[in-house]
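hiii so my PI (J.) wants the whole complex modelled not just the main chain, which honestly fair. so below is everything: two entries, each one labled with what it is. i double checked the lines twice but i was tired so who knows lol
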Amino acid sequence: MNFHGGNIYDYKNIKYDFSSNINPLGVPESFKNALYNNIDMLSKYPDREYRELIKSLERYLGMSGFKIILGNGAVEVIHEIISLSEFDRVYTIVPTFSEYKRGALLSNKEFHGVECYNQDYTGVDIEYLLNEVRENSLVILCNPNNPTGYYINNEEMKEISEKLNKKNCDLLIDEAFIEFTPDYPNSSFLSNLCHCPNVTIIRAITKFFGMPGIRLGYGITGDLGLWERVRQSQDPWNINTAAVIAGCTVLEDMEYIEKSRKWIEEERADFYNNLSKIKDLKVIPSAANYHLLKIVKKGMDAFNLRDILINEGILIRVPTGFYPLTRGYFRLAVLDDKSNTAILKALNFVFRMVGNESQSKNTGFHRRTYTRKN
Amino acid sequence: MNFHGGNIYDYKNIKYDFSSNINPLGVPESFKNALYNNIDMLSKYPDREYRELIKSLERYLGMSGFKIILGNGAVEVIHEIISLSEFDRVYTIVPTFSEYKRGALLSNKEFHGVECYNQDYTGVDIEYLLNEVRENSLVILCNPNNPTGYYINNEEMKEISEKLNKKNCDLLIDEAFIEFTPDYPNSSFLSNLCHCPNVTIIRAITKFFGMPGIRLGYGITGDLGLWERVRQSQDPWNINTAAVIAGCTVLEDMEYIEKSRKWIEEERADFYNNLSKIKDLKVIPSAANYHLLKIVKKGMDAFNLRDILINEGILIRVPTGFYPLTRGYFRLAVLDDKSNTAILKALNFVFRMVGNESQSKNTGFHRRTYTRKN
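here's the output for the full assembly
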């Protein structure tokens, strides 16, 4: 069984869920109203071609001429693309989202997790990655990456895609968290898609629009062959009507979008600064709506910390499923001011109780690739 | 591209959609209220184990001790079971739901469509089917069948399952329309499941509860190995929160259930009787919420008829995808009195215009199996 965030159902009385990377502004009012007004649409099958939804996505992205692959959550799109890729080898930089590995193994493909972060998880050795990747492979990069929050800028990404293209490799960029980055929309690789025929981009409504219960992810590609193969393989009506209504309303909800961007800019900076004051924790800077943290206090790891915080109604994300993270790492979503204050108070209390130690600093690189075949 | 019902989006101004087999009572009020009251649940990931939903299904089915496989629509469950079956051959009686064949071919399995209906589609030659099926195969029976409405009773089904068991074959019974049958719940094979270890049953909320936009299907099985394989293969959070809320409310909505059963009993009989009065049409008796009809007027087929009726805002289901049905066949959902009256008026008008011919009657059996490999 794989492990993801969002396991609040395994615990009782969770007041603050820092384990899911979800916009805390919650379900947009625009969607609630649209759902109330269109509830009887549920009595019809959705349009099998999802024409209105695709138009809405194209307007939101400010693009057309590419093909859009819709999924019941981004995970479905990820799995379909891995499964239907022409290539039998999948590479990614680890630690990252565990569904890339799971998708590769489910499709009987080789999975290569390239360890090329520096020891602080503040930089990656792209040259090492590119040297490791063999010809005729699919490379998946989560950008910004989950769980490190590390962001590869467009110039670097363009170089990566070009070098991969020379090796006849495809590049899948998972931009599930891109709307949280400081200079979105410029941070997205989308505007480069027309120059990079080997690139497909994945997005989701789940995270930025605060509705993980809705399940709507999408891929944007110029690869007609891939799009056609996915289309032939997908179940009919894989997107339910509630998700269609969501996609046709929230993407135009400028008030929600602006409020969310204001929230993330303010809270991410505040949260980072306040977390950084806790001496037993090392906070990794992040371009996304979460932070990876390392416990540098002896005798304490993420699992101990989770158990302590659960008693305070606080859930954190332990490193299970994020190989090669060790037990000392955990991930925290950036939530609203009240929640962030609550966990800061709890963390200050926990770490004051166990005492302080000085932070170590090590920027050397790990360089290793591990391979799994099913 | 496969073809299903529900393609109202390809046409403008469809007032009466007879192409989708959906309860016309529409979205249950109990669900609307539950959705309004719990809309903020969408801001959380669903429970990955779907514990509440499974409990609700067990209460509805009056059973426990079996494993439940949840799908984003019954189609997902069908495809997972075909794909993860131990066997590489799939048999079914044709004509039937096209997703069995599609699922088999997508999974690189042999598909065998056994033609063993009599020429009126009022009976099947089970012996012929059982003789055709080779050892170590998966047999799928839609019961009642789509599009014929033919129902195999529990005694016959038990015999089929036992004979298949001796051949080391599994039986998948698709009961998507079982709640519409006259003596439901006795008509369901569910109570026999404990005696038939090779049987899995599939159901859906889609049809009976009038919500095809919601996408919630489920399989019930005692085959722990199959259940575990599907669980490992399925995407996390494949059921969205709106579907969870639906499954936790409408299954207990006795008012909707009783109203729906009263509607289908009355309207199916009335609709059948009135359709039977049209001399150019042969109506096939049905245990489900739709009728297969044959046009016996020369110079007219289902495609001509569709084009004529579309001008009246009426959509019928042409036989595309229902091999070996010929162009003369079409399917009509049983709708509400107003809609049924509208199509009867239109059909009477069309067929009066082209004149009448006497009905032919032929109860001989087709017996043939066609095989497809990907």
